[in-house]
Every structure is written in structure tokens, then in C-alpha cells.
UniProtKB/TrEMBL annotation:
Keyword terms of this UniProt record: DNA-binding
Coiled-coil residue windows: none
Alphabetized InterPro entries for the sequence: HU-HIG, IHF-like_DNA-bd_dom_sf
MF GO annotations: DNA binding
Official protein name in the record: Putative histone-like DNA-binding protein
Domain (HU): residue spans on this chain: 1-125
Amino acid sequence: MPITFNIIPRKNIQKPQDPQKYYADIVGNGKTTMDDLAKYAASVSTVSKGDVLVVLETIFTKIADDVADGKIVYVGEYFTLQAGGSSEGKETAEEVTSASIKSVKAIFRPGRLIKNALKLAAFQKK
């Protein structure tokens, strides 16, 4: 199934007098759940859907715990996850504390397999 996109107009805010241009805006088309992943894995192997769900839940719980512990989690050739964020600037190093951290986010980096799959993706106007 191709990746779908809408067409959206945008103005250049740095040059408001310039005419707007039109851009492709990639949009989600459906969703895949843990249940879907487990059903697929069960259909192509001898493992039951319930067993696959237990394994997936266990793995993703471990990934979440390790990211929260500050580890960079490498999930094979698929992706890496790690914590990142932003903090408030202080005048001296001594003033910087954990209270200086203003936001925390998960940093996702696709691995070789996901990057290659995206290179081969087809696109379709919605």
C-alpha cells in the first residue's frame, strides 16, 4: 500500500509578499496495533498470538525501562531509542541541576531496514 499525502498551501513567513507554494503533506493511513503485530507473527510462525503478545509486551516494557534509565536502546537493524530533551540555560555550571531540565522526549532513529523500506515506498495523492 502506498504512503498517502494531501496537498497544502504554505506562505513563506520570511517573505510574506511572495505567493504561497503548494506542498505534499504525508498523512497517516490506518494504524497497526500490538494485536495486529501478534496476529501477523502467529500467522507466519508456529508461535501462538498470545505467546507473541507476551514477548512483545515484555520487550517493549524493557525498552521503555532502559530508555528511562538513560540507555541508548539498539533494536537490531530496525531502530534505536534514547532519551533527549531541553533545559534552561544558567550563568554557571554550578547552577545547572535536574530542575533545569524543561522537557524530555524520546529520540527515534530508524535503522537500515526501516530506511531501506522507506526508500522503496510508493506514494499516492489522497
